[in-house]
Amino acid sequence: MALDRWIALVFVVFCCIYGYLAFFTMDHLLPPFMQRNPVWPSTFPKLLAIGGCIVGLVVLLGLEKPENESEPSASDINYRRLHEYNLGQALLLIGLMVCYALALRPAGFLISTTVFLVAGSFVLGERKWHVMVPVALIAAGSIWYLVQEVLGIFLRPFPYFMGV
Description:
Residues 5-155 form the DUF1468 domain. By secondary structure, the chain is mainly alpha-helical.
């Protein structure tokens, strides 16, 4: 089985587990006044699980490929040449994402997001610091402003010890 189908199989299993959690474990915790609402907090996770299963099954069953294509194209993933891809960059970006998630609460949104964006662009090959830092600062500040002020969702901008 090709690499894309193995990835699709893992994706379908993940979506099935996610769907089970969304359908059977989220709704019993709702207070009685919310149980009459047409849209529940579990509605979007349910839609994501169903959509993910459908997309994963399309790839798993090979329905997205034309029938007359027997030879893989140059844009397809070739698992025999996996060592030629930039796996180091991909793994480093995944590690940065994990570090970002762990640093989000203690360091605050603005600092952790700015550091993540600068480090991520550095890993991907950007070396113009005079471009990376202002873009990361503007992006982090804009997202924080939209979430905090426009949507009204509290998002701690700075670390706990700064008291802001």
